[in-house]
Structure formats: C-alpha cells, structure tokens
Amino acid sequence: MEDDVLVIGGGAAGLMCALTAGRRGRRVRVIEHANRCGKKILMSGGGRCNFTNTGTTPANFLSANPHFCKSALARFRPEHFIAMVEAHGIGYHEKELGQLFCDESSKQIVAMLLAECAEAGVRIDTNCAVDDVAALPGGGFRLRTALGERRAPSLVVATGGLSIPKMGATGFGYELARAFGHVVLPTRAGLVPLTLSGKHLEHYADLAGVSFHVSARCGKARFDNAMLVTHRGLSGPAILQVSSYWEPGKELLLDLLPEHEIADWLLERQREEPAAELRTVLGDVFPKRFAQRLCEGWFTSKPMRQYTHGELPAIARQLANWPIVASGTEGYRTAEVTLGGVDTDGLSSTTMESKHQPGLYFIGEVVDVTGWLGGYNFQWAWASGHAAGTAA
After folding, report:
1. In CATH, what number is assigned to the domain containing residue 208?
2. pLDDT tens, 57-108?
3. Which run of H or of E encompasses 212?
4. How far is it, in rounded angstroms, from Cα 392 to Cα 390?
5. Taking every annotated instance into account, which residue ranges of this chain make up the domain RsdA/BaiN/AoA(So)-like insert (predicted)?
6. Which residues contact 108 (CB under 8 A, 6 or more apart)?
7. What is the DSSP string of 307-357?
8. Which of 120, 211, 312, 378 could form a disulfide with 228 if both were Cys (CB 3.0 to 4.6 A apart)?
9. What is the mean predicted confidence (pLDDT) over 210-233?
C-alpha cells in the first residue's frame, strides 16, 4: 500500500487530521470530491473565517452524549490553533464573546492548512469522488475513486454534514457509517433562520431588515444577541443560536428588552414623561418601526399617565416573555451546521476510532457533536481532527 492513512474530505477536520498524521511520518492522502479544499472555510465568517473561540468549553456543544467531546477539546485547545495562525503571520482580531476572525481573509486559513499539509508530505486528490469503500480481509480499506483504487490501513471520514448543499454537502459519511455498523442519529438543520407563517408572519414580514438586541430562550438554553426580522421569519445570532435547541412544538420565548428591568423602567418613564405616548417611549429603546407595530398589534398607545400601575407591569411581562410561534426553519440550504450524525457511542472519545471497525475514524461535523455559533464548530473540527491524526 502506498498510503498509511486515507482521509475522505478536505475540509477543516480532514486537513487538520492529515497534517497531524503527516507530522508523525505517516503517508497521508486526502480525497476531496470538490475542485478545491476548504470551501466551507472560505465562505465562513463573511469571508474572514471565525476560526476559533477562546472561551470554548464542552458546554458550548450539543450531543446525545455531552461528555464525548471533552477529551479531544482538552488536548487541542484554541491556543494551539492560535499558535499555528501566529506562526504563519496571519493577523486576527476578537469580534465579540471570544470569537476570533482573520483581519484579512479566510483564504489565509486554507493556505495555512495546505502549507502545513505540504510540509508534512500529505498528498491531496481534488475532483475525486469516492464510489465504493470496503474493508480488506486482512485489515485496512480499499477505496474505488474517480482517480483509481486506493488502499490504506487507516481510513478517516471527514465528509461533513448536510448543511449548505450548494457547497457539495452530501450524506455520504452517514451512509458509510451505517455500512460499518454505526448508528446514525436523526439529523436536522442547526444554526439556521426560523420561518413564520400565517398571522405570525403577517405581524412581522413588512419589518424585514429591522434588527435589535434580544434574549432568546428555548428550554434551558438562553442566548443574548441581535435578532433580525426577515421576509420569511427571524434570523440574527440570537435566533441562529436558539434554533439548534428548538424543534416544532417547543416553546420559544424572547425577552425583547434584556438590558432593562422592564416594569421598573416603564414606571420610571411614567413618572418622568407622563405626557409621552407609549409608542414614543418604546421608540427610544426599539427601532421606531417595531415600536409602532407593538402598539398597533398588541398594546394601545396612550399617554403614560393614563396607564394604571397594573397595566404597565402587564406590558412588561409581555415584553419579557414574548412568544414566537415558528413554523419551521430555512433548512439545510442556509444552515451553518448539521445536528445529529454518527452516534458517539460507537466511537472512542480519545481517538475518534470506530468501536466496530479497527482503523476507521469519524471526525468533524459528521459526528453527533455540534457547536454554538461563534467559532466553536471550527474548534471541534481542529480538536477531533487532531485526535484522529495522532492515532491513525
């Protein structure tokens, strides 16, 4: 066999695994079906790649087994990836909440990974679809590809999830996992805009483009960030974050003024501006169009002095527990990640190796580990890729 390790998928996790294994002296080949590696990296973070988050902890990830990600994340931390970025002279900055972005372009991250792969002797086949994968009787694997047959003792599956199909996303990794006896947990779109329908959409649709700070809650999950009204529903970081926890039938609530003790604030405004109308008062803290809509659709706008001390706290409770009845999500077309995937019960948390098939590894988004918005999914790609690369 001319290769020791075959990696299917030249994205973030696959390239990290390849360069890590290559540094150990392993003969590594990456097989990428697209015409270039790292396409999702290139488009991420508005073209500047939110490549990690300095505050990464296991609590920032969703999985049927929340403990699974701990080992890999502990052994390859944000500072390890940052050291590589700095060694390549790539400028970066913190945008908010520990999110690190390139100063210039996400192309620099892809170039860095490819340079590290080249230095480690990694070979990369692009425009190379995999038609068939089989385990060899004596151990190892045989792949039939567009560029011929490949064999190796170790096979790493880094094929990603179903999100953003126009970038070439497919369910190939899940099919492969099932073929080798793995359970694949149900998948759905994560970090994705929510859609509204009927009267719920009518309330907001003509406010498309309006954005403001909210706190979005679903179950125990809570995210404080911007919300954006769209033509089809709601988006923005707070909504994308909570979308990973929401499913049809689950209660979704917004605190529309998370930075205020709303009842106290309204009573204070009543004392200080008794002649001001409610829509004017709300227009000081919301975009004017949204304040107007609140008063048209839900609250009667009258001078503050005319509200009883019972009415203002009732308005405050409504603003702090604003129900959103979503009809669904925008789906994989715009989702940043795929929830669910290869069940972690069938994998080693230390090496990502299959418990069913020696020499087979699953890393990155194909596994049932999904991070929050803000660089966490890249950190999982680096950490899981590194874990497999030290073992494969």
Report:
1. 2.40.30.10
2. 999 999 999 999 999 999 999 999 999 999 999 999 999 889 999 999 999 9
3. strand 211-218
4. 6
5. 188-337
6. 49, 88, 90, 102
7. S-TTHHHHHHHHHHSEE----EE--TTT-SEEEEEE-GGGB-TTT-BBSSS
8. 211
9. 97
Tally of CB atoms within 10 A around 267? 17
CB 212 within 8 A of CB 292: no
pLDDT at 1: 72
Neighbour-count burial for 154-167, b at 16+ CB within 10 Å, e otherwise: bbbbbbbbbbbeee
210 sits in which H/E element:
none
How does the average pLDDT of the chain come out, rounded? 96
One-character DSSP codes across 55-117 = T--GGGEE-SSTTTTHHHHHHS-HHHHHHHHHHTT--EEE-STTEEEESS-THHHHHHHHHHH
Per the CB < 8 A criterion, the answer to whether 113 and 38 are in contact is yes
SS3 call for 141? strand
> How many H helices and E strands in the chain?
13, 22
- Tokens representing 166 are 């126009």
pLDDT digits (tens, 9 = 90+) for 129-173: 999 999 999 999 999 999 999 999 999 999 999 998 888 888 999
Nearest-angstrom CA–CA distance, 68 and 58? 9
Please determine, for residue 218, whether its predicted confidence score (pLDDT) is greater than 90.
Answer: yes
Predicted pLDDT at 8:
98
Distances in Å between the Cα of 184 and the Cα atoms of 12, 121, 161, 210, 249 are: 21, 33, 12, 39, 24
Element housing 302 (H / E): none
* 88 and 131 assigned to the same domain: yes
CA dist 236 and 251 (Å) reads 19
Give residue-wise pLDDT tens across range 360-369.
999 999 999 9
121 and 210, same domain (yes or no): no
Pair (249, 322) in one structural domain? yes
Degrees (nearest 5) of the Cα angle 165, 166, 169?
35
Q: State how far the Cα of 250 lies from the Cα of 69, in Å rounded to an integer.
A: 26
Q: Which of 335, 249, 245 is nearest to 63 (CA)?
A: 245
Collapsing DSSP to helix, strand or coil, 227 comes out as strand
pLDDT (tens digit per residue) in 2-26: 999 999 999 999 999 999 999 999 9
At residue 259 the predicted structure's pLDDT band, cuts being 50, 70 and 90, is very high
